[in-house]
Amino acid sequence: VSETGSLSIIVLGASGDLAKKKTFPALFNLFHQGFLSPDEVHIFGYARSKITDEELRDKIRGYLVDEKNASVKYEALSMFLKLIKYVSGPYDSEEGFKRLDKAISEHEISKKTSEGSSRRLFYLALPPSVYPPVSKMIKAWCTNKSDLGGWTRIVVEKPFGKDLESAEQLSSQIGALFEEPQIYRIDHYLGKELVQNMLVLRFANRLFLPLWNRDNIANVQIVFREDFGTEGRGGYFDEYGIIRDIIQNHLLQVLCLVAMEKPVSLKPEHIRDEKVKVLQSVIPIKDEEVVLGQYEGYRDDPTVPNDSNTPTFATTILRIDNERWEGVPFILKAGKAMSSKKADIRIQFKDVPGDIFKCQNQGRNEFVIRLQPSEAMYMKLTVKQPGLEMQTVQSELDLSYMQRYQGVSIPEAYERLILDTIRGDQQHFVRRDELKAAWEIFTPLLHRIDKGEVKSIPYKQGSRGPAEADQLLKKAGYMQTHGY
Ligand code: BG6
Fold it and tell me: Which of 3, 88, 290, 301 has the fewest C-beta atoms under 10 angstroms from its C-beta?
């Protein structure tokens, strides 16, 4: 990390799930790869529980080591844990944040290099209801006060609100305290390797340039599946549902990268300008292009009401009303408690006109980008079946990362994105107008679901979701291919 001076990373909500499972492990990985220098960095945990530094370290220790980093664990782990201090206090108390500021300032004095700038990164691993008071307290008591430069930045996690109105309210409250370049709205899908590869793939390959449009592409699917249910998160989940949890943010962000025009340059603002244009071109979702599902047994969770209509599965078709995409369905599909854990982008091409081989019932060309697990890209092609007969068969051009890039470890999304926040690169973060446009797309449908006007269909755990979703795909023109 190129800037110098002290760097304080403050994780608010330090004993929560997100901090333990994602934020601290990402910081640890950055540390042992040398991106966070012990000469500059200090990490602070802040939360309500009254625990000691050592107790916080004990809580997170088990999440920091896995097979991947086991060999370095003893040395790096104890060095890393020593950098962590804990301050306890409520999320709306002057007193608590004054103490936090004092702890940060002491660290800054001890770590100051000759430039003496002070960099303060606040990571809000908290529910959005406390964003406003916490941001107020940070602004009032904890911002960088060094005359010698530096910065104060805040990282906020989804859900950013529940609908357009609440999201805008949240944005205004935070926007009144911090400038847009200080606010990092994290969507961890933007940190995934193959999501980051999307623009390279599209704009650095001549092959795709003439094909990437309504003349050649029949439909696009962006699919997320998990093979487990809400598992103890029922209370949170029931308030939000799968559209707010996955589709409105993660899948929609991926859609932007698949559908956007070429940006003027790679500057974050140029890229985000193009993403906003895609979102603004999406036309209202029709109820007949939505299938919602809820897995059987979801309501057994005591925190979920018996009559909950909250979807744990949804397929929605988005239509982009512009020159490139008119008429091409973008099918966004997400589900919990499904048959497998998988996320991919599937771009299905149109049939070949004048098919002399009469082979089109074997399947179309389809370009699949597997985001996880086992990152890969493959193109389904029709080829001659090897042998004496002239028979055709579907095969694949396959780029599996595990085989092609043996020995290269793919960074975790959170690692990459936290490094970006320290470097001041907002390319992979959601801008305020992007967030607004994303909520504009889904809010009317979400309100209809909340009122029970669009119903969730029950489906079996471990299945493909409701059969109605497959029928919708068929109606949208998706041609099922082998093995999918
Ligand atoms: C989170 C959702 O944003 O993403 C979770 O809140 C979901 O419900 C998770 O499990 C999936 O992330 P990943 O990286 O495992 O696909």
Answer: 3
**Alpha-carbon gap, residue 88 to 53, rounded angstroms:** 10
DSSP codes, 45-112? EEESS---HHHHHHHHHHHH--GGGGGGHHHHHHHHHHTEEEEE--TT-HHHHHHHHHHHHHHHHHH-
Q: Which two tokens stand for residue 478?
A: 């998706």
Q: How much distance in Å is there from the Cα of 113 to the middle of ligand 1?
A: 39
pLDDT in tens, 385-435: 999 998 999 999 999 999 999 988 899 999 999 999 999 999 999 999 999
Separation in Å, CA 299 to CA 232, 235, 240, 379, 456 = 12, 11, 15, 40, 13
**Distance between Cα 246 and ligand 1 center (Å):** 7
**What is the distance between the alpha carbons of residues 159 and 171, in angstroms, rounded to a whole number?**
12
The residue among 425, 424, 427, 433 whose CA lies nearest residue 171 is 433
Atom of ligand 1 nearest to the CA of 189: 14
Query: Parallel, antiparallel, or unpaired for β 6-12 and 118-124?
Result: parallel
Chain centre to alpha carbon of residue 408 = 22
Give me 362's structure tokens: 């074997």
* Closest by Cα among 127, 200, 114 to 159: 127
Q: Are the C-beta atoms of 191 and 414 separated by less than 8 Å? A: yes
Which atom of ligand 1 approaches the CA of 224 most closely? Answer: 16
d(CA 424, CA 421): 5
The CA distance from 394 to 240, in Å, is 41
Residue 362 in this model has a pLDDT that exceeds 90: no
Q: Yes or no: say if 5 and 115 are a contact pair by the CB < 8 Å rule.
A: yes
Four-CA torsion 214, 216, 217, 218, nearest 10 degrees: 90
Half-sphere exposure (CA, 13 Å, Cβ side) for 258?
30
Q: Tell which phi-psi region holds residue 8, choosing left (phi > 0), alpha (psi between -120 and 50) or beta.
A: beta
Q: Percent of the chain at pLDDT above 90? A: 83
Asked if residue 256 lies in contact with residue 422, where contact means CB atoms within 8 angstroms, the answer is no
- Active site includes 188? no
